[in-house]
Specification:
With about 270 residues, the chain is mostly helical. The protein has one domain. It has twelve helices and no strands.
C-alpha cells in the first residue's frame, strides 16, 4: 500500500491540514473527561486505591466506546463524499481497478483510526498499574479494540458506497453501529429461556465483556463496574461462542469490502 495513490493522497491531505491534530485532541480530551468523571463517581464507593481492576474495566469500556463512536464518522463519508463531489467518477473512468479504490479508502481511514487508537495509550498506562493485567493483556485489549474498529469500518465503508451524499453515509453508518451495538443486545435473551443469543455474534460489546472476564477472572466485571444492565453477556456466552463471534465478524468484514467493490463495479459499468 506504500505506492497506492489513494493512500498517499490521504496521507498528504492529513499532513497539510489540522484535522488529524484536532481530532486527536477531541478524542483524547473526551476520553480524559469521561475517565475523570467516572473516577469521581466511583472514588467514594471503591476508595481511591482499591479495586484497580474495576478502573481497568472502566477504561477498557470507555476507550472501546470512543473508538466505536468515532469510526463511523471517519468512514461513513469516504466513498459517498467522493461520489458527491464528482471525484469518484474520475477515479472510476481511470485505469485503477475497483478493488484498489476500495482497499485504498479502507486502508487510508484505518491508518487514521490506528493513530487515534495508539494516542490513547497514556490513559492505559495510568489504568494498568495495580490492576494485575500486565502489558501482554493490555496489548491484547488494544489489538481487540482495533479489530472491532476494522469490523465497524468495513460496514461503514459498504454503506458509504451505497449512499450518494457524505452526510447520508455517516448517518446510516451510525445507525448500523447502533444496531450492532445496542439492537443485537436488545434482541438477545436476558435469560436462557427466552430468545436466542445468536444476535450476539455481531455485537462488539459482548465480546469486550468476555475478554474482560477472561483477563480479570471475574464474571460480569464490566456490568459490575458500570452498574448497567449485564453487558458482559448472556450466561451461555462461552469461550467457543467468543471465537465464533470473532470469526463471524472477520467474515462480515470481508463480505462488506467485497460488497463495496461489487457495487462500485456495477457503477463503473454504468458510466
Amino acid at each position: 500500500m506504500k505506492r497506492d495513490p489513494i493512500v498517499n493522497a490521504a496521507r498528504l491531505r492529513r499532513s497539510r491540514s489540522m484535522f488529524s491534530a484536532t481530532l486527536l485532541m477531541i478524542v483524547n480530551g473526551l476520553l480524559g473527561i469521561l475517565l475523570f468523571l467516572f473516577y469521581l463517581v466511583y472514588r467514594e464507593k471503591w476508595g481511591a486505591g482499591s479495586h484497580p481492576e474495576k478502573y481497568y474495566a472502566i477504561f477498557s469500556f470507555l476507550q472501546f466506546l470512543v473508538m466505536i463512536l468515532i469510526t463511523p464518522a471517519l468512514v461513513g463519508g469516504t466513498i459517498a463524499g467522493e461520489r458527491e463531489s464528482g471525484r469518484l467518477d474520475v477515479l472510476m473512468t481511470g485505469p485503477m481497478p475497483t478493488w484498489r479504490i476500495v482497499t485504498g479508502k479502507y486502508v487510508s481511514v484505518m491508518e487514521q483510526i490506528l493513530l487515534l487508537h495508539v494516542s490513547t495509550l497514556p490513559f492505559l498506562a495510568v489504568a494498568l498499574p495495580g490492576s494485575g493485567m500486565g502489558a501482554a493483556r493490555a496489548a491484547v485489549l488494544m489489538l481487540f479494540t482495533f479489530g472491532m474498529c476494522l469490523f465497524i469500518a468495513s460496514v461503514s465503508l459498504l454503506l458509504s458506497a451505497l449512499c450518494r451524499r457524505a452526510s447520508t453515509g455517516v448517518t446510516v453508518s451510525y445507525a448500523a453501529a447502533l444496531l450492532l451495538s445496542v439492537g443485537t443486545l436488545l434482541l438477545a435473551p436476558w435469560g436462557s429461556s427466552r430468545g436466542t443469543p445468536v444476535t450476539l455474534l455481531l455485537n462488539p460489546f459482548t465480546d469486550l465483556g468476555w475478554l474482560l472476564r477472561v483477563q480479570t477472572g471475574r464474571d460480569s466485571l464490566l456490568a459490575e463496574a458500570l452498574q448497567l444492565l449485564p453487558m458482559s453477556v448472556h450466561g451461555d456466552y462461552s469461550d467457543a461462542f467468543f471465537y465464533l463471534s470473532i470469526a463471524v465478524k472477520a467474515l462480515a468484514t470481508g463480505f462488506c469490502l467485497v460488497g463495496a467493490r461489487l457495487f462500485l463495479d456495477s457503477r463503473r459499468r454504468g458510466i
